[in-house]
Amino acid sequence: MAANDKSILKRLYIVAGFLVLFAGAVLFKLVSIQIVDGEKYKALAETRTSHIFTIEPNRGNLYSDDGSLLATSVSKYTIRFDAVTVSNEDFKENVKPLADALAKQFGKTSSHYQQVLRKAKENKNRYALIVRDLDYSDYMAVKSFPLFNKGAYKGGLIIEQKTKREHPLGKIAERSVGYERVDKDGYRTRVGMEGAFGEYLRGVEGKRAKQKIAKGLWKPIGTDNIIEPKDGYDVYSTIDINIQDIAHHALLGQLEKYQADHGTVIVMEVKTGEVKAIANLGQTPEGKYYERLNYAIGESHEPGSTFKLMNLVAALEDRVVDTSTVIDTENGKWKIYRHWVKDSKHGGYGKISVAKAFEVSSNTAFAKMIHNGYKNDPEKYVNRLMGMGIHKELGLPVRGEGIPVLRYPGDKGWSGLSLAQMAYGYEVSMTPLQTLAFYNAIANDGEMVKPRLLKEVKEWNKSIKRFDKEVLNPAVCSPQTVKKVQQILKDVVEKEYGTGHGMYSPNFSMAGKTGTTQTNYVSKDKSKYEYISSFAGYFPADNPKYSCIVVIHKPDKSVGYYGADVSGPVFKSVAQKVYTTSPLTSEVDVENIQIADAEKAYQGYYKKAQQQYAQVPNVKGMSGMDAVAILENLGIEVEVRGNGKVKRQSISKGTDLKTVKKIVLELI
């Protein structure tokens, strides 16, 4: 027994020793965790239970040139309830008054809200949804309700804020206005003006602490932000909403008439390069049209006969011809190697001057002129075109500018046919805006200015940065050549035989060039041929104020496809209505122009805005400037009292717009 006792005792000592060692190891680890690795594990715990979240700032407003809103950010608020932080006594005392207040504000019954609140309390729900997507005035009202007025801890109030981008003009200029989006990896997608001017619009991010609660949800800690977000600057574009609306509806009507695939219209101010309108409409499978892509800036294609202007300028500058030089168009067909160049008029035009060849848009005359004039020195021809700068991108801030194509002798694709083909706008490629920039230069007496979409960046009434005219080429050609081609462009419309004479009006003058480009021409099946119809020019013909280009792709051939028929009427409609709404010269007899048509077009802007808001919107909490812009865009007369943000509006939200003529805003 003694031996057994000793054996048992020995074993006890061994076990005790192991326990002491184990306890020591545990103690050592605890000390190590607490002292040596304490900060590490504390930080790890905090990242798993709390986190700093980014608060997106309000983007700055994007305005038209007269201060009308094109895009604005509106804050939206979601209210949730943390039932755990609220004491039983406070909950019992305030649950019915809170439910009553919610019911009165949002239209549901008090019993509905009592049920939501009591269920949250019973289930210890720390993130119960009460109401979402509130505007600022409703949000401020909820903060003052019983129980919620006690704040985040005692009252269980959880506030989540987000911003929503709205376009008061609806779909008009939607693609040109554009957007800026950020994916989960931080990559930004930039489209249109929103994307191009994002550095000014986007502002500075704020920071907010949130705590992780049940079911992986995150609850804001406290009611204040760690870092307050800084709103973006306001950006004033060059877009004129009246001209934009005119261009949009003129293009839409013609696309629908010809069931075309897509089209674009650009209107630019001649002297400054300010883009006043840029409409891009594409067809859906259902036959409707919307702002699908920015064809004006991004789509490079063979320009066809509108490129004859560049060829005419080159030939005049190099003295290959003069405007009076006679060219034989033969019977309307001219064979070069195995290729036939054909005129649209069967039988041709006979022997005509270079000026008339341009005015009737003779392919044979221009092919002969360029091929015979430069066949011994094709480099001279291309160098002349390059000297005008038409081979370069415009360098726009808007992403996605199409790349112009101008081959050089020896390049891949250059052949013995190239001079003749380029003479009437094939084997070259330009975007509508690049083509317009050259026509604008001719209207501007030879000075090529950079098309511009941005006028100024502001912070409230303080100017941050102004953007002025930028000259790309002080003289695309000599003054003598400019005067000659200006007269010829005018004659395209005014002369009875000119391809643009169908657009002629005795009440206002226009100058320009038609273009009809054949696509899919490599196919032997003529039924598969498609066309691009164009008109580029400016108005008035003397002392031009605006330049404009219209390009319509793939019109229904059974209805028509020539530039004069398809695109010309859009140009004329834009010019006529711009003349009417803002007379350009004292010589214009406005009374003889159809004012009713112009008024109808101008009212179209209000109609589009009212489709966005059929009822009076809630502008409480907005800055006075933004509220006035939205309401005036809806055709409502606005009287402002005070300064700051809107505290009250005399006409309540939801009122039918048709019954409202004037609204009074009180600002604080």
UniProtKB/TrEMBL annotation:
It holds the Pfam family Transpeptidase. It is found in: Membrane. The chain crosses the membrane at residues 12-31. Keywords: Carboxypeptidase, Hydrolase, Membrane, Protease, Transmembrane, Transmembrane helix. PROSITE patterns: PASTA. Residues 610-668 form the PASTA domain. InterPro entries: Beta-lactam/transpept, Beta-lactam/transpept-like, PASTA_dom, PBP_dimer, PBP_dimer_sf, PCN-bd_Tpept. The keyword Membrane applies. This is Penicillin-binding protein.
